[in-house]
């Protein structure tokens, strides 16, 4: 019988992060000052980030040691399991082999703690007392709250209002880890007040919440800012996912033909795929597919150009696929994918044809989510269900062609906080 | 540095269940017919259970093979991780070593799927088309829904009304796995209608919901009944927990001085502790502590006598610690511990002084839950937090005495569906 779970021992957690920057065939375009549009150096970021993270943001080192204190806390849930999706394969009648990497066993239920712990550590090391951040669906805010709780750092979360209202239990989770959370737009910042003045009912966006958190951090001596996706150092920290995948697949004698991840800001997708990049650049036949919501199609319908990361235009300009920093995505349930741009590294690789992207309607996503839940058991987060859908689409192509490809996808989180979205799907309100 | 996670490989999942029945120093008193009070034989259970489970209920075999089809599905989340609670130890300043076994990584987020999968399998094997069950907080109902979904069996869940209202997302989870769920008391059964007639606002109890599910199953040819705790075969299936613990502790050269579990019907507690029983009976110095809610203190304040398992008195009489089958516990948040009796095997061992029990107030439980969340990261279910509290109490005793004991407790599930309870705690509504 085919074993479903593919485990690693606690000694096999990767001890280094993989940094894709030195491997990119075309270097990243430099970030620009949002006012002058002149290239900025790392020092421009010091009001927002500790030096340890800024160094990683621009590092040309391919492998970066994971500090022992970070390893120690990652070991609260890592290594995470990989599974062969035998139930899903059978239901689809596909000759393809489907594997998935499951990040839902972390304390916050998603992949976000991988970078939250690293970021909290580097802030702690430089004596930062307080961190401000934003959160969309709540995964990042709760992950950072968890990490700050373990390192004894105060944490302030600006949560996109629509999710704050739709997902009250994410807020409770943040509180349980001892952090503060307010709905964004809030009246605590100029950016928030401006948005509320324009529209008192504003349901918020990730870009707006970023403006609020950045403003908070920039205005207080004791506070730094933390971002849960997009930036190079965040993708770096998530590389632990793909590295574990490589070991796990090798342990059963497999290697993927295609790797599929959901894409919002890019951290989960990149963490899963980038560790395979050197193989691809070395000539290996492997495809990387990013799956995004039809209602927020930055990679598939956005422009590849310089844009800021937030609504108020306080962050540096970065070269990326963007729908425009004032784009207000529809209130889909995959709140973690409602971001106007893609990570610069992912955008670079998509633009150069090294990675691919597709976009999918919400209803189709939930069809795949329910099929998965009923054949594999695990309840996916709506975000993660985008990856399932992408994998199902690849498996059905194999069914048509008769090819027995090996598909790997990332199940970035569980859906136990998202059951209201499933209710909406079952009741036809979608 | 002390490694936190203690993993097992997928090949180390136990391949047999441990049956404590032949090892009990004093055999169980026989179950009696609720009308005649005469001992009943296994055949009396055939309207409710498939023969495969009835045989296990009375088996005198110490080790029972786990069927390959069950092993295959257990591998969706097993082996589960064990952790050294270094953060908690540090916060308590105790010389004790604390370990915990975490069952929250299962698809339903608790230990319940361990027996749900086995029960669904034996029903499927005997061509049962539909299973009726009850659920308190929703853990069991969702676990059985999950298992039935994978085996293609229809599932009907009677859910205690207070939890049905307090935890709507458990209901959504049950629906996502394709099962039906109604609040209990319902008007679908005579037992439910009688309760509603007496009190239209009746918030229900596990004992009442059992009556409804038993009545449903007894009245339909195509339907059997399933119970998530109490019975010998349920405890048998959970023995996989303690067996994994023994291997995990041995892998780091440890053995517990005390094992602590929360106790509702007894399945989690027994699954954790019983595999250590042969060592204790062989002279090993090891203690077993059951922790129950002060508001439902069956083991600590109940009587050791024959009682039925349900409100309507339809189940056999079993010798156990009981608060009386019509006891209506206060609506505490640990809904899974609101049961009037203890498992016969656990009751037998408590009565004979081989196991111990304590009861704790809800507020103290949440104090320990929050301390744990902020030091260990994982958010405990309110039920599981009883075990944390018991372990903390043992660790504090060590602090006083200076003893460096080894404490193992069972973290039977995550609290991601219970955040409303944390809200109540933080807002002082507890």
Short description:
Two copies of one chain form a homodimer. Chain A is an alpha/beta fold and 430 residues long.
Distance between the termini of chain A: 39 Å
Helix content of chain A: 25-40%
What is the CATH architecture term of the domain at 5-13 and 67-109 and 232-427 in chain A? 3-Layer(aba) Sandwich
Structural class of chain A: alpha/beta
Question: Number of helical segments of chain A?
Answer: 17
- Percentage of residues in DSSP E strands of chain A: 15-25%
Largest sheet of chain A: 7 strands, mixed
Mean pLDDT rating of chain A? 95
The oligomerization state is homodimer
Tell me what you see in this structure.
- Two copies of one chain form a homodimer.
- With 430 residues, chain A is α/β, with parallel strands linked by helices.
- Chain A has a domain at 5-13 and 67-109 and 232-427: Rossmann fold (3-Layer(aba) Sandwich), CATH 3.40.50.
- Helix content of chain A is 40%, strand content 17%.
- Chain A is built from 17 helices and 15 strands.
- In chain A, the strands form four sheets. A seven-stranded mixed β-sheet of chain A has the order 1-4-5-15-10-11-14, with helices on both faces. A four-stranded parallel β-sheet of chain A has the order 8-7-6-9. A two-stranded antiparallel ribbon of chain A has the order 2-3.
- In chain A, β6 (130-135), α5 and β7 (154-160) form a beta-alpha-beta unit.
- In chain A, α15 packs across α16 (382-401).
- The mean pLDDT of chain A is 95.
- At the A-B interface, β1, α2, α5, α7 and α15 of A face β1, α2, α5, α7 and α15 of B.
